[in-house]
Specification:
The chain is mostly helical and 132 residues long. It is 64% helix and 0% strand.
Length: 132
């Protein structure tokens, strides 16, 4: 059985970016999280199907995974709640983050499949504050 890489956990709307990363041997979490804005612009220029927005989201997910240990699904949830960086996560209170997630769930009419508690949110915010 093949082990799953970081890219295997990305949703299907990232298929073009995922394909580009695999073709160019950029499957390592470290490499993806260290991409500069210039690198991202070059990728988008070389592969017109890749979008800047998706490339930036993948980088943010990789940074959350590497620095704080948040799973890709949880990172994607943070991005949808408007938390796009470790700095923005560090500035939030855990209950504010819980409120943002709840608002997103109500707006979508769907309960997220992740088991995120206030204690987990406190841990994320604490780790982000230590980094910043």
């Amino acid at each position: 059985m093949k082990s799953k890489t970081f890219l295997d956990f990305l949703p299907t709307n990232f298929r073009h970016e995922k394909s580009f990363f695999i073709q160019n041997n950029l499957t390592d979490l470290e490499k993806i999280s260290n991409l500069s804005e210039l690198d991202i612009n070059e990728i988008q220029k070389n592969s017109s199907l890749c979008t800047l927005n998706n490339l930036r989201k993948i980088k943010a997910i990789a940074i959350f995974k590497r620095e704080i240990g948040i799973s890709p699904a949880e990172s994607y949830l943070l991005l949808h709640c408007g938390v796009a960086s470790i700095r923005s996560l560090s500035r939030l209170k855990p209950y504010e983050l819980e409120h943002k997630i709840g608002r997103l769930e109500r707006r979508l009419g769907v309960k997220t499949q992740t088991k995120i508690t206030l204690a987990i949110l406190k841990d994320w915010v604490f780790r982000a504050q230590r980094i910043c």
